[in-house]
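User: what does the whole thing look like in 3D?
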Amino acid sequence: MFSSPFQTLVTSASGFLLLLCPCLVVADSPYQTSDAFLDEVFIDDVPAPQVIWLKGEVKETTADILGHAYPGIRIRYWGKDNRTAWVLEEVGKTQPITVGLVVNADGLESLRVLAFRESRGWEVRYPFFTDQFPGTRLTTGNKLDRNIDGISGATLSVRALKKLARLALYLHQQTVKVDDPTS
Amino acid sequence: MTRHHKKKSRARLLRSLYIWHRYFGITAAVFVVVLSVSGLLLNHTEELELDSSYVKSDFLLNWYGIHAPQGLTSFTSGTVTITAVGEQIFWGAKHLPNVSAPLVGMLTYGDLVVIASGGSLSLYTSDGELVEKLDQVAGVPDGILALGVTSQALLAIKTAQGVYLTNKSMLEWHRDNESDVLWSKISPLPVELESGLQRSYRGIGLSAERLMLDLHSGRILGRAGVYLVDAAAIIFLLLAVSGVWLWARRQASIRAHRRNTKMTAAGNE
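Assistant: Here's the predicted 3D structure for the full assembly of 452 residues, as structure tokens:
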């Protein structure tokens, strides 16, 4: 097929722009809205939201997991059949990363980045990274029971997501405790 | 050109290079100090909390053109006054870090202080502790225009799509255009508080990190400052090149001198 230098230039430029696409997506617009995330998790039968209050030991442990006090004293979640869904935020470097997490009796079921606002570290949204989380549980010290491989240049975003995974697992334990009349 | 002339002109060049090297060194010294100090501080931004420390100097704030806006929007409910100063929201004279403008309403609802701003609702205890920030994730309709309370004590927000109500749990919202709503209204601000807020606004307008970044890049002096730092970088390069060249010349002359001394000594023997 005939290919002029102009066509080659246009093709190369388009290829370069396509490579840049992930960076261009890094805007305030979400990858997935929280409503869409919840619809997907509960297959269009989203339960009524509930709240967990951060008081006493729960508040202290939450601050310990995050490394700072949680901005607020109650957190909303959606729960059904011993599965809970959480939409949590944590600052990577300067901007909050919005993450949707689902926890069940076997541990973390899924983790998805819903919105990323930082200029670097957006690679954490991709399955090659988020697929490391399903099945993760908490150890007795509220750490993840497995190693999560980091991404070069996205250290702070990786750290933020690991903290949120620990937080969702811990809060799920607390909601189960609340629901369980024997505890 | 005779050998003697060649030697003389080379010596003159070397001397001139020494003089230039000295000038480059003196000129670079100022930049080296500024860039090193600012660079060291920036390397430890988090430990030194530069991002949460603010510049108080009036001169620097004026230099950056940070002036408090006039005509502040304020809402008062009971003893609580919430004011928007530019993009920042204040509880009395205290800055609220989790809330941003535009401020569209505020009221006391049960034990909570509810602030409608920046497209979300922020719930605070009467002591000023944040309970929860409610946005679209929490089912709050988008585009809040006003905040109020109905005669049945339901919390109400007005959006372009209509009026939405919720109860004290604030877990779910439903549309209702029938209820009688008492909307929160802008209230006048005491003069002392207004001037205090304007001072506070300026007080958190310029972080130490921003100042260090601008000092390091030269942007503190605008476009000219960037070119000045570019010039400094070129001087550093010239300094390195002239320094290495002078050192190499010196080494060569020392080696030649040693060789000559050895040969003279051998000749004498």
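In plain terms: The first strand of chain B starts at residue 73 and ends at 77. The two ends of chain B are 35 Å apart (CA to CA).
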